[in-house]
Amino acid sequence: MARFLCRRLLGYLVLVVVASGLAYVLAASSLNPRADFEGRNPRPAESVINAQLTALNLNDHTPVLQRLGIWVAGVSHGDFGRTWEGASVNAELDRRMWVSLRLLFFGTVLGATAGVLIGAYAAVNRYRASDRLIALGSFVVLAVPVFVLAVILQLGAQSANNATGLPLFAWVGEYEPGAGLGSRLQHLVLPTLTIAVGQVAIYSRYQRSMMLDVLEADFVRTAMAKGLRRRDALLRHGLRTALIPVTTYFAYNFGLLLLGAAFTEKIFGWHGMGEWVIDSIWRGDVNSVAAFNCFAAVLVLLAGLTSDTAQAMLDPRIRR
Questions:
Q1: pLDDT along the chain (320 residues), means of 10
Q2: How high is the pLDDT of residue 139?
Q3: Which one of 3, 18, 230, 303 counts the least CB within 10 Å of its CB?
Q4: Angle at CA 289, nearest 5°, toward 283 and 291?
C-alpha cells in the first residue's frame, strides 16, 4: 500500500507543478497590474511605473516566460513574491490559508459524512416517502447557487435570533474582537452550513445510486444467509463496497468545493483565500493569484491522496 501511495503522490506532485505553472502563465497573460496606476492623480511617469512593476515581477512589457522563470525560481526557495502593494505574498498566504482551511475542513467533513449516510438511508428506503423527500430536497439545493443559499441561511438565522431574542447566530466576519471561543463558533456555523448543505445534496444523490447497485448483490445475500441481519449486512458489506466510487468522486469534487468556498468567504466577510483571490483578480495582482492557484493545487493533491488512501483501505485488491 505504501508503494501504491508513493507512486500516486509522485504523479500528483508533477500535476501540481504543471498546474501552478500554467496558472501563472494564464494570470500573467490576462491580468493588467498596470491599470492600478492609471487612476492615480497625479499619474506617475511611465518610467517609474515600469521600474516598480519590474521590481515586483509584474511588468507586462517583460516576456511572460521570463517572468515565469523568475517566479519559479522564487517559489523553489519558498518565496511567492510580492503583492501589487509591495507586501509579502508569503505573509498574506500564511495568514489567510488557515482561515480557509478551518472552513473547508468542517464543511467537507460534515457535508460528506451526512451526505453518505443520508444517501444510504434513501437507498435502503427507496421509493418510500422519505426517499422522495430527500430527493426533492437535494434537487432544490442543487438548483440554488451558493450565494443564494448563503443569503437564505442568513435570513433564517436572523429570524431565529429575532424569535428567541438571543444572538444565536452571527454572519459578518470570523469573530467579534475581544470575544472568545463562543463567538468563533457563532460565526462558524452559517458559512460551514453553506458549504456542507451543498455537499450533502451532492453526496446523497451519488451515494444512493451506488448503494442501489449493491442492495441485491450476491455477497449481501450470502452474508444474510450466514446469519447477519439485513442492516448489519448492508453496513458491513454493502456500504463499504458502495463507498469505493464515492471516494473517487471526492477528489474530483474538491475543485468545485474550493470555488464555492471562495464565494462563501466573500459573502460572510471571512478574510480567507477566497476573498483574497477575488480581490487580487480585480486588482490584477498576478503573484497573489498564482499563489492561490498553487495553494488550490496542493489541496486538490491532498484530496486525491486522501481519496486513494480511503479507496485502498476499502478495496484490498488495490493494496495488492
A1: 74 86 91 78 80 87 91 90 87 89 89 91 89 93 88 89 84 74 82 91 90 79 76 76 81 77 86 87 90 89 82 70
A2: 92
A3: 3
A4: 140
Residue 319: predicted pLDDT: 59
CA-wise closest residue to 80 among 297, 300, 290? 290
Handedness of CA 114, 267, 254, 83 (dihedral sign): negative
pLDDT value for 67:
92
Burial label, 144 (beta-carbon count in 10 A; 0-12, 13-18, 19+)? middle
**If we measure between CA atoms, which residue out of 295, 4, 72, 267 comes closest to residue 154?**
267
Task: Identify whether the C-beta of residue 167 lies closer than 8 Å to the C-beta of residue 186.
Answer: yes
Instruction: List b or e across 14-51, with b for residues whose CB sees 16 or more CB atoms inside 10 angstroms.
Output: eebeebbbebbbebbeebebbebbeeeeeeeeeeebbe
Give me the domains of the chain, ranges plus CATH numbers. Answer: 96-283 (1.10.3720.10)
Could you give the C-alpha distances from 75 to 6, 24, 70, 90, in angstroms and in order? 23, 12, 9, 10
Nearby residues of 132 by Cβ (< 8 Å), 6 or more positions away: none
CA geometry: angle at 273 spanning 75 and 15, to 5°?
45
Name the CA radius of gyration of the chain, rounded: 24
Please give the Cα distance from 197 to 202 (Å, whole number).
9
Q: What is the pTM of this model?
A: 0.81
2-30 vs 286-314: helix axis angle to the nearest 10? 160
Query: Burial of 276 by CB count in 10 Å (0-12 exposed, 13-18 middle, 19+ buried)?
Result: buried
**Three cell numbers, residue 190:** 452559517
State the first-to-last Cα distance of the chain, in angstroms, to the nearest integer.
7
Q: Where are the alpha helices (DSSP H) in the chain?
A: 2-30, 46-55, 64-76, 89-124, 129-143, 146-164, 181-212, 218-225, 230-233, 239-268, 273-283, 286-314, 316-319
